[in-house]
Amino acid sequence: PAQPRGAGVVSRAQPQQQPLEPIQQEEESSQQQQQQQRDDKATSSSSPASTDGNEDEDFVLASVTRAVEVAIASPLFYVTGGIALGVTIAKRFPGSANIVILSAIPLVGLSVLARTPLGSQLEERAAAQSAAYQQEKSLVDAARDAARTEDWPQHYGQSRTRWLPRDLIDALPDSWASPAHLDGTLPGDAGFDPLNLAKDQAKLARYRECELQHARWAMLALPGCIVPDAIGRAAPSLAAAIGEPVWWRVGEAKLNGADISWGGVGGFQIAGGIPIWGIALCQLVLMGGPEYARLVGIDSLEPVGVPLPGDINYPGGVPFDPLQLATGGVAGDEGDADARRRSAARNFVEQAVTEMYVGRLAMLGMAGLFAQAAVTRESPIDNLTSLIQ
Question: Residues near 286 by Cβ (< 8 Å), separated by ≥ 6?
Fold first, then answer.
């Protein structure tokens, strides 16, 4: 009887244990499936999706880098962005000190950018582009030399136009009439250096740099002297809004506390509404950066991602040649690099001569305005009207 009873116990216990085995198996299988699903999700998120995420981040970073590079190198960005920012800040925070601080934003901003990881990437891109420019430089120089002698012999080389008639040039000593150091390579070289002031090549390069700087300032100054005067005469109602249309009276007006605007637009009184000492400080800050960059050399903007392919007088690149007229972005077959290079070289040598001649006329024009203001005490338009009458 004990055996059946024991067997009965076992038989009763087994039916209770047997149903639990498939349930446990199902639970374990379910747990395994859930774990496998979690593993699959983790694997999928760490492989293609993660790669796509990295690619997206790289694309965004490259896009931001490119946008910053274009903005830094674009004159349009500084003109439009500078005016908009200047007007906004000047209205919200009026005062001479704030305007002076505002004028320091470009220089400080570029200096800070150059020390950031983004600045390092911009510098690396600029270095790569600069290396490409150096590889192209010999071809560009050769194309420009050919354009000077073949397309513009009247302005370059030994057959160029001189400052004296040919008969007199031939009759005079070469050292006086046609110095050897003026060989017709420079644009606008008419062989004029009777005192041999530029016999030393270093002095010649320095004189040419100074001449170009003065010529470009004079070309900017002439419209600045004439246009406000013309606006004041064509629309007398704007004369009061401008503040002082006669150029040589502006300093006196500022000393007397007048507000000066551009074209009568009140929003452009960024510097015109502050004292003359504030304008002087703004000029010092605004011009200090570019002048320092010019002193450092052609590669001074590479730390902020702006390589310049030219030299100190004709730097080129996006800031100074946005239409790429001097580097091949002109007429010609897109697939023919030589044709584009030759076309760009012809364009460059022609524009260099034109700039030099017009710049010299502008310097003479400014000298005339100085003399007229000192003698007649009248505006340029008044002097012109007197001459015509």
Answer: 103, 106, 107
d(CA 338, CA 20): 87
Q: Please answer whether residues 271 and 243 qualify as being in contact, where contact means their C-beta atoms are separated by less than 8 angstroms.
A: no
Tokens found for residue 100: 């002076």
272-321 pLDDT per residue, tens: 566 777 778 877 877 887 787 788 777 777 777 677 788 889 888 777 88
Residue range 201-210: mean pLDDT, rounded: 93
Question: pTM of the predicted model, to two decimals?
Answer: 0.71
Low-confidence winner among 190-199, 259-268, 348-357, 365-374 (lowest mean pLDDT)? 259-268
pLDDT band at 28 (very low <50, low <70, confident <90, very high): low
